[in-house]
Automatic annotation (TrEMBL), chain A:
This is Small ribosomal subunit protein uS3m. InterPro entries: Ribosomal_uS3m. GO terms for biological process: translation. It comes from Vanessa tameamea. It is found in: Mitochondrion. GO terms for cellular component: mitochondrion; ribonucleoprotein complex; ribosome. The lineage of its organism: Eukaryota, Metazoa, Ecdysozoa, Arthropoda, Hexapoda.
UniProtKB/TrEMBL annotation, chain B:
It holds the Pfam family Rib_mS39_PPR. Keywords: Mitochondrion, Repeat, Transit peptide. It is found in: Mitochondrion. Residues 685-712 are annotated as: Disordered. Its main location: mitochondrion. The keyword Repeat applies. The lineage of its organism: Eukaryota, Metazoa, Ecdysozoa, Arthropoda, Hexapoda. This is Small ribosomal subunit protein mS39. InterPro entries: PTCD3, Rib_mS39_PPR, TPR-like_helical_dom_sf. It comes from Vanessa tameamea. The keyword Transmembrane helix does not apply.
Length: 168, 712
């Protein structure tokens, strides 16, 4: 049955050239969202470190853990859906690159009015002075790109070990 | 921003129009208070764009015990010393500057404007409305730039002085400009004296700018661009004259300013009040001698009157500025009071700057005590709000606090002044970081000296360390106050403060602390005493570590060593040590005293004599032996009873028995006694006879013992 679906899908590719209605209707990959996505596999030596956020699979969101992006774009008539998603991804990559090797947690992005608050846990591997430099740099550069006030809300830990919740 | 959620997306353009038309601000409300149905809505109050934010902010007080909000709220990132406060704030600003540099240098990467609410895109890179200039790259001017008069207007409006000069040159100098633009350019040059100011957006840099004392010297650039533009202007308008005269007077080119004023008067060009104000401020540069200067000042005021110009608050400030710059004395003070009285009659109240100059004139450090501050504060307390109007307004509070602390030495007045500063949002008048710290320096000093102790501690707890970090001199005052009140626990905590604030290397302060500790040590509870002894041990350990580091790194400036006096203080403090730290401190202090070959203070001798048997009782035999032999080496007679008593403790005999033992069979002692006891016996003999007990088989006598015997 699967193959026949694929065939139909391929046919719809051809169709899609004529009519955009057929372009994005079919899903040909198997539905794995409940089984593997957002979950970590156990290693043989049981030495993969997980943070609390990683240790809880997606269905625990809003029960044991919370969202990584906070905004209203997914509400009914919410604005800037795709823009928000792309910007959030951009912010995450920017933070991970700028604070290279220092980010110990997920980057949480909260939007309130025209204000973006970015929270993360950093390692104390560089001096506070350098941290302040990076803080000012990140806030200013992100706010010029996204064109709204951006605030970083960081916490620091001594080492990555401090955020490890368990090993699997 | 997202207030129009109900309106579907495709209508958003309409929404945008609607928003501007139907927003609350745009609504027409009835203006009359009487209506037909008896309901009378109050008249509309016009509000500014940030009024609501300010009203909200007014509901939240400041928490003085938390770090300033510019610092990150994390234990690792909260600064606790003056150096760190400055370094962290400036680092963040440096980061912001780096980002701004990238934005300006690579302007082509920052052309996208986010669109909100989303609408159909008209052109690829132009879709946000309105544009927010703060997020856009700043224009960049070099020799190849193509510029128009709009650029010049932009640079002048934003006070970008160097850019303005560049654009001006690119536009072809004096000839190719409209007269209006030329005038505003001239005004810009005159205001800043052709020196680029620090931009408004770099708040921290302005806050931490090194305290530059206002130089009363001619700094006006003669024959500079401003002069050239002024000569090229034809016809010369009154505004041009006003600009150039004020510029010259501001930078103390008094003679040229005065000459231009005469020229303007001859030509019949009207001058403004502010021109005369600036001339009044630099009149002293034209004349020598107080009486001539006062005459010239009065002459200018009369001239103003002839021209039909009415004076304002700045006129008063300028007069007082000149008067205070000419020294002190009864004449000037009399003239100043007369001026203030006359301006009061005109209904002009002195501003904060005027009061600042009055304080400068009346309250000299060496001069007689004159209390004009009480009246000034009473007057300011009556005012509804203190608005900063002139640049020198920020000097008032630090000068007034300085007068409270050094001149009047009055804590009540200082408290009133501080309450005034804390009222409403008067705190903005504190000036910058430098002025703020001087203000608190004066305040804490006067509080430590004259305030009741409860108030002092309350103040210290509130201010330190987040608002103010005491400098060494203030720290000394604080230690003195704590010592006077015998606040032992606080004194013990003071060492931690010294460490955190970066004063631990200052031997003077540390010695002061040890002095205070040993003075108050006797009356404290056991717990506090234990804390104090721990502190003493810490101090000695810190000193040793510092010395080690110095040897390792070969520093230029050697760390200061603690004096023998300070070490004896430690011994005195630890004479009744209970905890290990106390014993360690005593041992370390003794070691260092012996290494320096210094004599302890007289008070410490008794302490040492008491320490030895106590140490023996607590099984610190080596320490007991070292104490006794040190006493003997220094030749104090306390060594004899101390050694007998200590030995009696160690050998568990009565003192008579020990005394007999020591007197009798000397040779057998060396073989029968344990090393520590033997050392004490040796010390006994050193003290008694001046020669140590020496046997050929004695291998236990320590090096210092033999050294001291050589000395004897």
């Amino acid at each position: 049955m699967n193959t026949s679906i694929i065939k139909i899908a391929q046919a719809s590719n051809a169709l899609s050239q004529f009519s955009p209605v057929f372009a994005s209707q079919f899903h040909t990959s198997s539905a794995l969202c409940r089984v593997v996505s957002g979950k970590y596999r156990i290693t043989k030596k049981r030495d993969r470190p997980l943070t609390y956020e990683m240790a809880n699979p997606p269905h625990y969101i809003a029960h044991r853990k919370s969202w990584n992006s906070w905004n209203t774009s997914s509400l009914k008539d919410g604005l800037r859906k795709s823009e928000t998603a792309v910007e959030d991804e951009f912010i995450r990559r920017f933070i991970n690159g700028t604070w290279h090797g220092l980010v110990c947690s997920e980057v949480i992005i909260k939007r309130q009015f025209n204000h973006i608050r970015i929270a993360a846990i950093m390692r104390r591997a560089v001096s506070p002075t350098k941290m302040y430099f990076l803080l000012g740099y990140t806030e200013e550069l992100l706010s010029t790109w996204i064109q709204c006030p951006v605030t970083l809300e960081l916490q620091t830990v001594d080492s990555y070990e401090d955020v490890v919740f368990k090993y699997i | 921003m997202y207030s129009n959620i109900i309106i579907p997306r495709q209508w958003s353009r309409l929404a945008c129009v609607c928003r501007s038309v139907a927003s609350i601000e745009g609504q027409k409300l009835p203006q009359t208070s009487i209506s037909s149905d008896g309901i009378s809505p109050p008249p509309r109050i016009p509000r500014g764009s940030t009024d609501i934010l300010q009203a909200l902010a007014a509901t939240v007080g400041n928490d003085p015990t938390a770090a300033h909000y510019k610092y990150h709220d994390d234990p690792f990132l909260i600064p606790l010393s003056n150096f760190r406060k400055r370094a962290y704030a400036l680092s963040a600003e440096a980061g912001r500057k780096a980002a701004a540099w990238i934005r300006d240098e690579h302007a082509n990467l920052f052309t996208t404007r986010e669109w909100d609410p989303p609408m159909k895109m008209k052109t690829p890179y132009f879709n946000a409305d309105p544009q927010i200039p703060a997020y856009a790259p700043k224009p960049f001017y070099n020799d190849e730039s193509i510029v128009t008069e709009i650029d010049l207007k932009y640079t002048i409006d934003n006070a970008l002085l160097e850019d303005a000069i560049k654009v001006f040159e690119l536009l072809g100098g004096e000839s190719g400009l409209s007269s209006e633009l030329k005038l505003s350019f001239l005004q810009l040059l005159c205001f800043y004296n052709e020196k680029e100011p620090v931009a408004m957006e770099w708040v921290e840099e302005r806050w931490f700018a090194a305290a530059t004392r206002e130089r009363h010297a001619t700094t006006w650039k003669l024959g500079g661009l401003a002069d050239k533009i002024f000569t090229s202007m034809e016809p010369k308008t009154p505004e041009a004259y006003c600009a150039i005269i004020q510029g010259m007077a501001k930078y103390f080119q008094a003679e040229r300013a005065y000459a231009l004023t005469q020229e303007a008067k001859e030509k019949g060009i009207p001058l403004s009040t502010s021109v005369y104000n600036s001339l009044l401020g630099c009149i002293g540069f034209l004349k020598e001698g107080v009486s001539l200067r006062i005459e010239a000042l009065k002459g200018l005021l009369v001239e103003m009157d002839e021209q039909g110009l009415s004076p304002n608050t700045e006129t008063l400030t300028a007069c007082l500025k000149s008067l205070s710059a000419w020294g002190g004395g009864k004449t000037l003070q009399g003239v100043a009071l007369q001026t203030v009285a006359e301006f009061r009659q005109l209904g002009i109240e002195p501003s904060l700057s005027a009061y600042y100059y009055l304080l400068c004139l009346f309250c000299k450090d060496q001069g007689p005590k004159i209390d004009i501050l009480t009246n000034i504060i009473a007057d300011l307390e009556k005012r509804e709000s203190l608005e900063p109007t002139e640049a020198m307004d920020t000097n008032f509070f630090i000068t007034a606090m300085g007068v409270c602390s050094n001149h009047l030495q009055d804590i009540n007045l200082a408290e009133r002044l501080h309450a005034l500063l804390m009222k409403n949002d008067n705190y903005k008048l504190v000036g910058d970081a430098y002025k703020e710290s001087i203000y608190y320096r004066h305040f804490v000093t006067v509080a430590c000296r004259f305030a009741p102790f409860e108030r002092t501690t309350q103040l210290l707890d509130m201010l330190i360390p987040n608002i103010y970090v005491p400098e060494p001199s203030v720290m000394e005052e604080i230690l003195k106050a704590l010592e006077l009140q015998g606040a032992g626990a606080r004194l013990a905590a003071a060492w931690r403060e010294l460490l955190v604030f970066g004063h631990a290397g200052r031997a003077r302060l540390v010695e002061r602390l040890l002095r205070a500790l040993s003075c108050c040590g006797r009356e404290q509870d056991d717990e506090v005493k234990e804390q104090m002894q721990t502190v003493a041990a810490d101090i000695l350990k810190y000193g040793e570590l510092a010395e080690e580091r110095e040897e390792r790194e070969d520093r230029r400036s050697p760390t200061q060593k603690l004096s023998a006096r300070a070490l004896s203080d430690v011994l005195e403090l630890c004479a009744d040590a209970r905890c290990d730290a106390g014993w360690a401190a005593a041992a370390a202090a003794l070691r260092r005293l012996r290494a320096d070959a210094a004599e302890p203070a007289p008070a410490a001798r008794a302490a040492l004599a008491a320490l030895a048997p106590r140490a023996a009782r607590h099984a610190h035999h080596a320490l007991a032996a070292a104490t006794v032999s040190y006493l003997a080496e220094c030749g104090f007679e306390e060594a004899i009873p101390a050694s007998i008593e200590t030995l009696s403790v160690i050998l568990n005999r009565t003192t008579e028995e020990v005394g007999k033992l020591l007197e009798e069979n000397k040779p057998s002692l060396t073989t029968s006694l344990q090393p520590a006891a033997l050392e004490i016996a040796q010390a006994y003999h050193t003290a008694k006879t001046g020669t140590p007990l020496r046997d050929s088989g004695s291998s236990t006598s320590s090096d210092s013992d033999s050294e001291s015997s050589d000395d004897d």
